[in-house]
Specification:
Blueprint: H1 2-16, H2 24-33, H3 37-57, H4 65-89
């Protein structure tokens, strides 16, 4: 969890620029695709899930732990960001 938090904090500027909305990139992607931020994020998450799936079923490869850590952490972070998007859309509901 600490690694997830550190990466999210480190990459904030890279993905949001000067935008104070940390979910702004997903909203912009949604506008470009004429869809919702949730669906835009799901499309981005799919790439990571497919990569993990491929790694899990690749019987010929022995992936380094750093590769596993990167793929799993990125996937978790997209899920945390999805939770934030959903929560933002339901601001009057408890966690």
């Amino acid at each position: 969890m600490a690694l997830c938090r550190e990466i999210l904090q480190r990459k904030t500027k890279e993905y949001t620029g000067d935008d104070t909305d940390r979910l702004g990139a997903f909203k912009a992607a949604a506008a470009l695709q004429h869809t919702t931020p949730e669906r835009a994020l799901a499309g981005m998450l799919a790439k990571h899930i497919v990569s993990l799936y491929d790694m899990c079923f690749d019987g010929d490869a022995d992936y380094d732990i750093s590769t596993w850590n990167e793929k799993i952490t990125d996937s978790l972070n997209y899920l945390f960001l999805l939770k934030a998007i959903v929560k933002e859309g339901h601001t009057n509901q408890p966690d």
